[in-house]
Write a structure and sequence with these properties.
The complex is a heterodimer of chains A (287) and B (376).
Chain A: H1 7-12, H2 18-48, H3 56-63, H4 65-98, H5 101-116, H6 119-130, H7 135-143, H8 156-180, H9 184-192, H10 197-225, H11 229-234, H12 242-252, H13 256-286
Chain B: H1 3-8, E1 20-29, E2 32-42, E3 47-51, H2 58-66, E4 73-78, E5 81-82, E6 94-96, H3 108-118, H4 123-136, H5 152-164, E7 170-174, H6 182-199, E8 202-207, H7 210-216, E9 219-224, E10 227-232, H8 234-239, H9 244-249, E11 254-263, E12 267-272, E13 275-280, E14 295-300, E15 305-307, E16 315-324, E17 328-335, E18 340-346, E19 359-364, E20 370-373
Parallel strand pairs in B: 3-8, 3-9, 6-7, 7-8
Antiparallel strand pairs in B: 1-2, 1-4, 4-5, 9-10, 11-12, 11-14, 12-13, 14-20, 15-19, 16-17, 16-19, 17-18
Helix pairs in contact in B: 3-4, 3-5, 4-5
Classes of the chains: A mainly alpha (287), B alpha+beta (376).
Chain lengths: 287, 376
């Protein structure tokens, strides 16, 4: 049908001709090629040719249990952060989608302003809160709840709390957008047909918002897997994640081939989990 | 189906409509009055339309009946049971929404079974009722489809099946055909009428389409500015509108200025642009003090105006166009004071000497006129 309307029509109908599409996409393609694909490829190649073909770095990951432990810990942390972000984020998204006017704007601002603030700043804010003489410890001490400062910073808990906070908007926004697209009539219909508020939520709102939940969960989970800044700042040496381990290998130890192997592992795990999620997701759509 | 289910949930064959009593109901949104002291008694099994322009309060009134809004004052009762503070999910009133409001993640069957499930029925109990309800809207065999795979008309029929499957005594319909095209609308109007006749359910039908209200309703409540302006049968509303608003809102209507020339006990004499008409007092809409010399508005249907043979005692008009419409002909003409008139003439083979830009003479049929005060 589009062919029959002629080419000049087509370009106005939203479909761009091939040369124009290429020209528009080219700058980003070049940037990604030079600044992302090339270095990643070099890193990965470097892990097996250094300079001769060797599997030594990959074998090391498997042989020394510490590295697999770090990988498991990374995945576990990411999973906990994802679940926490969902539990904290869903109610906020729900309230946001049910409010109108000023209240909705206020909540949106509370969600978006942290998102627009640098991750570094937000992570340092957690240091200010959690350190030995930080706000939390000082407050608890002055209230007499504790008589010695608690060890809050440089723990796994600190990493999880701070990462959940930093990544929360990535959970809230997709859920909000899918909740917003549910016509309000559907809830009214459910109520009219005999469903109480909770049943109406369980049978109508929640199932229809699942695409947003999946999108938010994938985003938060994947970002958590490779998250560097926050674990590096609020996590201690015992709380190394794959990302901070790669940072240590490249910055402190200058062991680029091994970092390359670790990066390859992280990439493979991430892609594998995305593939699994996508399968679950498309299964969910088909029902 | 078991014996107890039949008794406990009423027989599927004979659901009965119940009466609704709306008593002095108002609804304010901040300083805006949505519904203003409405009293309405809907009889059991009646088909009543709430007709009005957007913002007239008809939808707000329906939302209060459904339980989605709480009246600021007044009360609502269903068959003697007070509903005013009963939550929507406990009212047991069926509702059909303008945009179908089917659950997109459930199959047609699951949608229709939803209200039964909410009432604690098992799958085995619900299944025959769901099938029966789908058959009633001629959608047998569609149970496995998803709503997205159906046309708009089919979706709305599923919505009707879902609203009726639990045999509610009252069905509320909020402009249910507003999103459909004309042919489908007329087809579904007939289907809804047939369902109403066979089920005996009380239907309250909100629409802004006066034609739809006229063809479907037992009675129509015409609403404007949050109040019921007039309540009556379609025939009464069409022929005896009590206000200029109702006269203009229902059917085609011409308004012509006139001057009262004489008043006696039973009759009023009026001069209408050259024609002297004498009308009965009962043709006066609303309460107006009429004295000779007072200006009035005359409402005349296009079919109550005819061509006059002579210029004497007739309204002189300039013909603008004459439109052939098969069964009749519409003449568009303008009086000396610039009022445009639509006249419905019998369709004749010859054009009876009416030519565009020619002069013609019209006579109003005095018995079919309504008279209103000049201000409305």
């Amino acid at each position: 049908m589009a062919i029959a309307t002629g080419s000049e029509h087509r370009s106005f109908a939203g479909q761009l001709s091939r040369p124009v599409s290429l020209a528009l996409a080219l700058p980003l393609v070049l940037l990604l090629g030079f600044a992302f694909l090339l270095p990643v490829a070099k890193l990965l190649v470097g892990s097996v040719f250094a300079p001769n073909a060797t599997a030594e770095h990959w074998v090391r990951i498997v042989q020394e249990p510490i590295f697999l432990r770090i990988l498991v810990r990374t995945v576990k942390t990411a999973a906990i952060v994802t679940v926490l972000a969902f539990l904290l984020g869903y109610p906020v998204a729900l309230v946001m989608s049910r409010q109108g006017g000023r209240a909705a704007m206020l909540i949106a601002a509370c969600v978006l302003i942290p998102l627009w603030t640098s991750v570094l700043v937000r992570s340092y804010a957690w240091i200010v809160l959690l350190q030995r003489t930080g706000i939390v410890n000082n407050t608890l001490l002055s209230w007499g709840v504790i008589d010695q400062p608690l060890r809050l910073i440089y723990t796994e808990g600190a990493v999880i709390v701070a990462m959940t906070h930093v990544l929360l908007p990535y959970m809230i926004l997709p859920i909000f957008s899918s909740l917003r697209s549910i016509p309000s009539e559907l809830n009214r219909a459910a109520r009219n047909l005999g469903a109480g508020p909770c049943t109406s939520f369980r049978t109508v709102t929640l199932p229809l918002s699942l695409p947003g939940v999946y999108a938010g969960a994938i985003m938060v989970f994947i970002l958590s897997l490779g998250f560097y800044v926050t674990p590096a700042l609020v996590g201690g040496p015992q709380n190394l994640t794959i990302a901070t381990l790669i940072g240590q290998q490249t910055i402190d130890l200058l062991n680029w081939p091994f970092a390359g192997a670790l990066a390859g592992l992280l990439l493979a795990v991430t892609l594998g989990l995305v593939a699994v999620f996508r399968r679950i997701l498309s299964f969910g759509k088909a029902m | 189906m078991s014996e107890t289910a039949t008794i406990g949930r009423r027989s599927a064959a004979a659901p009965r409509g119940e009466a609704i009593t709306i008593n002095g109901v108002s609804k304010q949104f901040g300083s805006i009055v949505g519904v203003d002291r409405v009293d309405l008694q809907v009889e059991a099994g009646e088909f009543l339309s709430l007709l009005g322009p957007s913002g007239s309060g008809k939808t707000t009134l329906l939302m209060m009946l459904a339980g989605f809004e709480t009246p600021s004052s007044g009360s609502i009762a269903l068959g003697g049971r007070d509903l005013t503070r009963v939550p929507a999910n406990k009212r047991g009133i069926g509702m059909v929404f303008q945009r179908y409001a089917l659950f997109p993640h459930m199959s047609v069957e699951q949608n229709v079974a939803f209200p039964l499930k909410m009432r604690g029925m098992s799958r085995a109990e619900a299944e025959p009722l769901v099938e029966q309800s789908l058959a009633r809207v001629r959608l047998e065999g569609y149970g496995g489809r998803m709503p997205g795979q159906l046309s708009g008309g089919q979706q709305q029929r599923v919505a009707v099946a879902r609203a009726l499957v639990f045999q509610p005594p009252v069905l509320l319909m909020d402009e249910p055909l507003g999103a459909l095209d004309k042919n489908l609308r007329e087809e579904l109007q007939i289907e809804i009428k047939t369902l109403h006749a066979s089920l005996g359910v009380t239907i309250i039908y909100v629409t802004h389409d006066q034609e739809e209200a006229l063809t479907m309703s037992d009675r129509i409540a015409v609403m404007d500015k949050g109040r019921i302006q007039q309540l009556g049968s379609p025939i009464a509303l069409y022929h005896e509108p009590e206000s200029g608003f109702v006269a203009g809102f229902i059917g085609k209507m011409n308004f012509i200025c006139g001057m009262v020339t004489g008043v006696d006990d039973g009759r009023i004499d009026i001069d209408v642009s050259g024609q002297r008409v004498s009308v009965e007092r009962s043709q006066l809409g609303g309460r107006h003090e009429l004295v000779p010399g007072k200006a009035v508005r005359i409402a005349a249907r296009p079919e109550s105006i005819a061509l006059a043979q002579a210029s004497d005692d007739a309204i002189q008009v300039e013909v603008e166009t004459s439109i052939f419409l098969g069964s009749h002909r519409t003449l568009v003409a303008r009086t000396a004071d610039g009022t445009q008139l639509h006249v419905q003439l019998p369709s004749a083979r010859q054009d009876a000497g009416v030519e565009p830009r020619g002069v013609a003479f019209l006579r109003l049929e005095p018995g079919a006129l309504r008279v209103f005060g000049a201000e409305g």
